[in-house]
Write a structure and sequence with these properties.
The chain has about 400 residues and is of the alpha/beta class. The chain has 2 domains: about 130 residues, Rossmann fold, CATH 3.40.50.2300; about 260 residues, EAL domain (TIM Barrel), CATH 3.20.20. The protein contains 15 helices and 14 strands. It has an 8-stranded mixed β-barrel with strand order 6-7-9-10-11-12-13-14, surrounded by 4 helices. The protein has a 5-stranded parallel β-sheet with strand order 2-1-3-4-5, with helices on both faces. Helix 13 links the parallel strand 12 and strand 13. The longest helix is centred in the middle third of the chain and has 21 residues. It is globular. It starts with 9 loop residues before the first strand and ends in a 7-residue tail after the last helix. The structure holds ligand C2E and magnesium ion (MG). The site of ligand C2E has 26 residues, from helix 2, strand 7, helix 9 and strand 11.
Length: about 400
Amino acid sequence: MPSIDKTGVRVLVLDDEPLMLEFLADTLNSLGYTQVTTCSSGYRALSLLDAPGADIVLFDLKMPELDGLQFIRHLKGRDFTGSVVLVSGVDERIVQSSEQLVRSYGMDILGSISKPVLPDELDRVLAGWTRERNAQNPVVTPAYSESEIRAAIASGELLNFYQPKVDLASGEVVGAEVLVRWRHPVDGLLAPSMFISTAEHHEIIEDLTVNVITQTLEQARRWKDEGLPMDLSVNVSTNWLSDLQFPDLVAELARQVNIAPRHLLLEVSGGRLMEDIHAGLEILARLRLMGFGLCLDAFGASSLSLGQLRSIPFTELKVGRSLITGAWKNRNAGAALGSSMTLGQQLGVCVTAEGVETIEDWRFVKAAGCKLCQGYFVAAPMRAQELTDWLPTWRERYLAELADDSTGG
Ligand code: C2E
Ligand code: MG
């Protein structure tokens, strides 16, 4: 086997035990791996996979917050193209099922290591990695046909994931953005980029959106009944904003489950909104009149003028990731966030920062005056039940790490 340049391999190690983390990092360093990042939380590991990224992710199967199996699913959901190494002290059969799960998602697995970890064993498993190995495992973008997408909607394979939105001043979880996923029977969990544009071009987006909104309102009802009221935001493609029946349809769906319109926000992106401004305006203004919230998505990336912005009764501006993630170290992005804030204040709307990935991003958007934030630093999108289970964990983490953090102003 040709030897690899270990100094060029980025290894991310995830384990909830601090001593184990230290041991693994030291061992990897002594084996010659110099780009080692350690992390004790699955959610944080997911954010680290974007920046600095990783070629190999080594993780424990048994973790309290997000266990290894859930973590594998999140890796797939994020199109992780690196290689996986499982570290575990659990039953061999659980390890085998986990390996199988990784493979069934089409991800690359280098092997499993049982605890106590022996340095030679670690060296042997990691030595199997090559850059080509990951290159052969690209973000597969299968072209799904119109009929496959229709069938997926009909058979309930489209699932809502929920990403929490948090008030920066109080840490309170005020709601969540709904992000659709396709649980494909063969290809695994697919991100919206794999099917939304086909759905838009073949007029399936209406059915898809009704499906997403129906699931959302039913979930809003369940959370309300459990004493966990949430305002939920749903993404609406602008090509549907020419259907004048849309507001009545949404109002009817909300009425059926007795959810007040103010608890549902519709997110639209500015880009194509202006193509048919008349229909778009009528629809958005009617939705607002009915009491639904309206959010301008990916604000900052859109080219709406102040006049156009004023003409649409938005209740929220969501500043896009490109202006948020890492903006604290980038003067231009920082200035752009500042002007988005000024605009938000002039319009008197709530400003949400999306793409908050690190504590530095959190502090930065808080100091800039954003009200709400969303991003991997808080939590990745997850299923409804996972979100319910995550709430107390977040509260604890917020109180322990963030409540007294005055760096963010
Ligand atoms: P979006 O509305 O801008 O959604 C935010 C995207 O950013 C989501 O990707 C989310 O998983 C990802 N994200 C969240 N936090 C972070 C972070 O801290 N860092 C980074 N790098 N990314 C983060 P996702 O789920 O792949 O969705 C992509 C887009 O697909 C969405 O962008 C939205 O435009 C569209 N989409 C999702 N669900 C629906 C839907 O039900 N209907 C329609 N029409 N579009 C949808
Ligand atoms: Mg959105």
